[in-house]
Design brief:
four-stranded antiparallel β-sheet, 2 helices, 6% helix, mainly beta
């Protein structure tokens, strides 16, 4: 299924990915808000096609462009006991403060808040955790 939305002109590039963080209050009166806000909060999307239609925007300095997007997976770390393909989970950030850890972004995926619901699409390898947690790398959808 094709999803049509609007993104900032600078983000309107084929294969560019982003996590939709939700609507903002400045857009409340905009006539195009239903197209901008038709995505699911916390989900990652990839631009599959860029259309020629451009609109001015109060938020994006260079305006917005009509694009087609698709859902993509978000790589993350979950407790091994929860790592079941097809399982629906509520993601919890692991609150690791070791910013130099090679797995930091898996435990704290950019744009994903604790409490966001996902489905585990793919279960991958075990992760070496410096805190001793039993974690697995998964792909969330």
């Amino acid at each position: 299924m094709v999803i049509v939305t609007l993104v900032g002109e600078l983000q309107a590039k084929k294969n560019e990915s982003f996590i939709y963080c939700g609507p903002i209050s400045e857009c409340r009166e905009c006539k195009l808000k239903t197209v901008c806000f038709n995505l699911e909060v916390g989900k990652r999307y990839r631009v599959t096609s860029v259309r020629d239609v451009h609109h001015d925007c109060k938020i994006h300095q260079d305006g917005v462009r009509v694009v087609e997007v698709e859902n993509t997976y978000i790589p993350a770390a979950v407790q091994s006991k929860m790592a079941l393909e097809g399982a629906s989970i509520t993601f919890d950030v692991h609150n690791c403060e070791n910013l130099s850890c090679t797995n930091y972004r898996l435990c704290n995926p950019f744009g994903v808040a604790s409490g966001t619901k996902f489905k585990i699409a793919i279960v991958e390898n075990e992760i070496d955790c410096e805190k001793g947690l039993s974690l697995r790398r998964v792909m969330l959808s």
